[in-house]
Amino acid sequence: MHTALRCPMCGTMNPVGNVYCDRCHARLVPMAAAPSQPAEPEPDRSPIKGLSLPTIPPEHWQEPSHIQPGEPEEAPIGETTEPQAGDDWLTQLRSGGVEGPADIPAQSPEIEFPLEPSDEVPPTESAESEMEDWLAGLRGAAKEMPVAETEVVAEPLEPEPHPMDTREDWLDQLRGGIADEIAAEAPSYPPETTAAEEMTEPVEVEIPDWLQELEPIIPSPGVSPEAETVPPVAEEEAPALEAAEMPDWLAEIAAPPMEAEVEAPMPSVPPVAEEEAPALEAAEMPDWLAEIAAPPMEAEAEAPLVGEAELPTGGLEELPDWLKEPGIKVPTQAAPAVPPLVEFPVGVEATAPPDWLAELEKEAEISAPPAVPAFEGVISPSETQELMPAEIPAWMEALRPHPEAAEPMDLEPAEAGGVLEGIRGALPPLGIGIEVPTDQPPVEPTEEAVEALLSRAQLLQSLISQPEGTPVPVSGKREGWEWGGRIQHWLIMLTLLLAVVSTLILPQFMGFQFPPVAQPVDSPAVRQMYEVIEGFTEGTSVVVAFEYGPAEADELNLVTMPVLRHLFSQPISVTIVTTRPEGRRIAESILEEVGVADGEWVKADYHILGYRPGNAVGASQLLGQVSRDSGSPQAVVVLTSRVVLLQQWIEQTRAQFQGQVPVLAGLSAALEPVAAPYWATGSGPLRGFASGLGGAAAYEAASGTVGKATERFNTLAIFHLFAVGTIVLGAVVYALAGLGRKKS
Amino acid sequence: MPGELTDTIGYVGLLLGAGLSVAIFSYLLGDNPLYRVALYLFIGALVGYSFGIVIRDVFYQMVFVPLLQNPLVVVIPVVLGLLLMFKGFPKYAYIGNFSMAFLVGVGAAVALAGVLLGTLVSQVNATGQALAPAVWTSLPLGFLDGVLIVVGTLSTLMVFHFAAPQPQQVGGFWRPVVRVIQGIGRIFLTVALGVAFGGALTAAISIFIGRTQAVIDVVQALLSR
Quick check: A641 and B203 CB within 8 A? Predict the structure, then answer.
């Protein structure tokens, strides 16, 4: 007769009235609702459904002889035949319909807790054959334990080995003893049945009040209203062992919904789904479920899966049709009634084995039991203690830090200056080398390679040894060259200033006349040009092309004016064209300056045809347009300072009129070498030209007038003298400098 | 009043021209901002004026007016001109290739005809006739001019002879001769380049004299007022 309750977690004996353990505060009394009557055995069995469960229950579960009506089908561990004295309070609780430990349904573990990998433990092997010595010893010690004063109904399942039987029998013995003890303290425990039996049993579940009220209206043929099938506890597990190996996630699954204080499942506990099935069905069965489930008892016997139990519940109106079909169970409000697998007391480490188990192990004198963690990643302190130290490989052992060997790191000196001042280790120390292991033999360097390396090293050393203040030449120009260039600029400026003052300013402001240096030269080209213009008859069409801009106007205007005066003094028709945009404005300004508009000497008429783009194409179009407007021109006068423009007019005139139309040109002095071949050989249409200020002066001389060209011709000659003198002076200085460099 | 305004504008123009001329001349002292201001102002004014001329003389007179009077005449040029504007967009620049092909083709044809007839054929013909007795009389120095023309032309052309040396047989004899002719040609080239430099210098001095004279005229006009 027990007067105390042993805590399933720590093994402490607590008074009977305690709900929680005084030491570890673990719940001592389960909270699952229990039926008042033991479940009737159901001969008809159906395959077990659930996750990780065998579909067919073991044969020893199915033996009819083993299952007695009105008795628990199987109670391998902890099954009690009748309530013990001193458990009146539990009997009262049961009779009053209060949930108590007797209402704890059979622990049909849904999840297996293999002590060993499943592949290593084939289900067909006998447990006895796999029993190890240490386990046998432990079992023997467990048999001798005086903890089980209650009658153990369940016998070792030797005839029919079960996969779960692969666990050691000592655990079964131990579990049986503990279960007996608990059963003795908790009377009216329902007869335990296996999960398979629960599945095959009719709906012997606890019917809620609301369902009981409906029972007269909805009779169930196979189930009496009073029949409250208590989900039997399949196995009374050793709480300490279960608690020691219970992972957190399982505790989270098992504890919150039911709050039934059940010992932690052993590794061989059957899946929870099998155990939860009757509880779910018995808890709160809705009408639709009762209607569906009552006639076909086989379907009712099927336990819902855990997943199904976790499905969100809802009203019937929210269920789809396929769920309303017979044979499909939809758990609704029954889920909360499912007793929990285990409930861990708050503040107690679930992995701590109880003292009695430690003592038991000591008695068993287990030298080195194979400590296989039930779940990966969850290792209790006891398991940690049992772990054998692994053999560390040599390469890993070499990496073991040796505090005594560690030497303090030498701090490098801090930078003394610069942006890195105060920073240590900013510059890598010299002499750091990385040895690269290689299997190849070292190559002997040749003498040439050594010499090359030495030469490079010497060069690098010389570069490094240069002082920091060594100036680096930025450009290739010598310093003296800049001064020489400046002197040249100043010398030229002084020469031009002297020429300007002597030839332009003094005569104009002081009446000083510089003696004439040169006279206009009677140029044959100019003479021929004059003769051609002079030979124009009345009505002759002459095309005048102004092909220069304001940048060249200071020179070409002097050439243009005598030619235009000569042209407009002839009774001809002048057509002014240009292929440069600014040519028209130049033409208008020079005609205005010459006085063509109101001059009495003007006998010719003119019109400005304007600008035509396209260079050679434009010139060809202009010639063609003039030919269409006023017939073929008798001459083309080109006024330009560009070689390309002169050539295009010569070539286009030659190409369009087959050399019958003469070309006259008033050119810049720079174009005289270009125009001379066309005129000298008489090969082209160029019949005469006047180039530069000298040609203009010559034309004025030929025409018997004195214009600006003649006035400035002497100035030009004097400038030539200054320019020639400067050139000669520079050549002499350069020659002397060259001689000096050669001597040095 | 208009006369005075015109005179005032004329004086302002003269002063502005004189100031810009002095700014350009300041380059003799080295590159300076005054020179750059005058240079940029001159280039900008020239481009702006040219753009106005193009709008007036080309777009208005040659495109817009004919487009109103007889559109069929300018349809193709206008289309080609519009296609040419796609050259401003790299993605669609190929569309302008039609106009560019037309321009390049026509330009090359016109220029080639002029070069062949106006320069190449005529120059070769003139060089060949330089030694003819009928031409001597028209040359200043007669036969000597003819010889200078022929020798100068051939030797100058031989300067640009870049054939590989052939020391065997005729090549061994011809190479020294070519070297002598190339030497003579270099003399002619040097003289021609000297003449070109002299002509350029003369042109520059002429322009400088003209500009300086313009500044002096402005100063004299201001002093005389």
Answer: yes
